[in-house]
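Onboarding guide, step 5: your first structure request.
Type a short instruction followed by the sequence, for example:

Predict the 3D structure of this protein.
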Amino acid sequence: MILDTFSSPLTPRAVSFPKTGKIARVEGGKIMGASLIEQLKQVEDFRTTDGRRHPMWLVLLFVIMGTMNGDVGYRGWGDFVKRHRRVLIEKFGIQKHGVPSYSTIRRVVMGVNFDKLAEKFNDWAKNYVDLEVSEWCAVDGKSIKGTVQNYSSSNQNFLSIVSVFAGKKG
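The system replies with structure tokens like these:
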């Protein structure tokens, strides 16, 4: 990524991403208008460097793509990657190890700092959905079958998917 030089860190700056040619701006040290891949690259990788075959951003991107395709859970995401491996390998220039396995996807999803991931994803999404203060949104939530833990406890711990639809924006 190439930054132009301004003296103040709070002054908006232009950013160019060479591979995509996409232009963004930096305000207060934060990249505005960055691609999803650039945002995912900012999520800290918790794994040790030994044996790491796939960049974490790539695994997270495949999870997001699988989820957008309607696949949920580790097995579903693993099946998505397996089903589309040829296209994914070609599109992302994956060479040596192929696409990540189900167990790699599981390890990454279990270990990633979800708050940081959600923050980066939301930063990216805000660039594409500019909601007005009084705009109405429809919200729907579903729990993912088989993720409930401690059935007998009054506090249930399960995974959910929440969808929000902004009517005016479509």
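Each response can be followed by summary notes, for example: Confidence is low (pLDDT under 50) at residues 1-31.
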